[in-house]
Amino acid sequence: MMLTSVRSRASAAISLRARALSSVSNGLGLPSKFGHFINGEFVEPKGGEYFDNPSPIDGQTFIQAARGTKADVDAAVDSATAAYWANWSKVSVTERSNMLLKVADIIEANAERLAKIGPSTTVRRCGKRWPRIFRS
Fold it and tell me: What is the pLDDT of residues 81-99, one digit of tens each?
């Protein structure tokens, strides 16, 4: 009897969490679909195709992501190679460190928003505990 009650409460909590998180994408200003990030900007996939990226919580589409092709990969690799040789290879270790510290500051400044997005795309349906960063 007590086990049934615990299961019922756990199921209700997971259901509430799923409903809350499935609506998160609407309130975070995310676009409905993402292209590939190539050469410093989001671009449409060369094949023009997207796929639904479902939330692992409730199976609802969280966002649509670009379906990459060989041409997309080639464009990304060419862009990254050119950026490396033109710029990144000339950046000192100190400058790279400072850039990474700025990235850390941006992540920290957006921690609450990221904490809402993250579980919507990565939490397991079986109700395992969330990583520490997502718990208050």
Answer: 999 999 989 999 999 999 9
Q: In the numeric block, which tokens belong to residue 57?
A: 């919580």
Q: Which of 36, 52, 42, 46 is nearest to 69 (CA)?
A: 46
- Cα dihedral across residues 35, 70, 38, 99: positive or negative: positive
Amino acid identity at 28 = L
- Mutual angle of helices 2-22 and 111-122, in 10-degree steps: 120
Specify the DSSP class assigned to residue 39. T
Task: Give the 3-state secondary structure of residue 34.
Answer: strand
CATH code that applies to domain 2-134? 3.40.605.10
Q: Which residue has the higher pLDDT, 56 or 82?
A: 82
pLDDT at 40 over 80: yes
Q: What is the mean pLDDT of the chain?
A: 76
Domain coordinates of the chain in residue numbers?
Answer: 2-134
